[in-house]
Design goal:
By secondary structure, the chain is mainly alpha-helical. It contains 12 helices and 2 strands; from the N terminus they run H-H-H-H-H-H-H-H-H-E-H-H-E-H.
């Protein structure tokens, strides 16, 4: 029996090996690094209306196209590069989402200037420590929370695009601001401790 079969996991991740690896090593792990936060903001805003599996499969394409998620470089992308990206099959070719990523890189740096880091800013919405949910089944999973509502509203006020409450909550789950692993998943206790 291989390692994937031996462990109890959240059922949403069982579609393909990259999804399992993402679940086992990244999803829900607290992130304090601004580059990683920016990567997930780009990927999650690109996901709007699509599945996370689709975005995971294009992650390397995004990494290449978006300067390894260097927000300073992305903030400087000219319109001519937007036109190139619209031809790139390695990413979601949506002009609004591409322009949103560039806009969000600029807003991201404004937040850094105000708070010292984006991490300081975002962790302030959960009191500086991960929210520990107790989900027994995926039916109990939430798409938004009061925290994601407040964060999305504040991001919008600051000029961020394509980051509504559902997308923001996905970011909070991915970057460990909230532990939404099911209690029966082997990662739940690992991340709770």
């Amino acid at each position: 029996m291989n390692n994937t079969e031996e462990k109890s996991r959240c059922p949403w991740c069982l579609g393909f090996p990259e999804y399992v690896a993402y679940h086992d090593t990244e999803w829900g792990v607290p992130v304090y690094d601004d580059n990683t936060h920016f990567e997930f903001l780009v990927l999650e805003s690109a996901q709007a209306g699509l599945s996370w599996a689709t975005i995971l499969k294009k992650r390397e394409g995004y990494r290449r196209a978006f300067a390894d998620f260097d927000y300073k470089a992305v903030a400087e992308f000219p319109e001519s590069y937007v036109q190139e990206l619209l031809q790139d099959p390695g990413i979601i070719r949506n002009a609004q989402k591409i322009r949103a990523a560039i806009n969000n890189a600029r807003r991201f740096m404004e937040v850094q200037q105000e708070f010292g880091s984006f991490s300081n800013y975002i962790w302030g919405f959960v009191g500086g420590k991960p929210i520990q949910n107790y989900l027994v089944s995926t039916k109990e999973a939430m798409a938004t929370t009061p925290e994601s509502d407040r964060l999305a509203k504040d991001l919008k006020k600051r000029g961020f695009k394509f980051l509504g409450s559902t997308t923001v909550y996905a970011h909070m789950q991915a970057t460990g601001l909230v532990n939404d692993h099911l209690v029966g998943c082997f990662r739940y206790e690992e991340l709770r401790n």
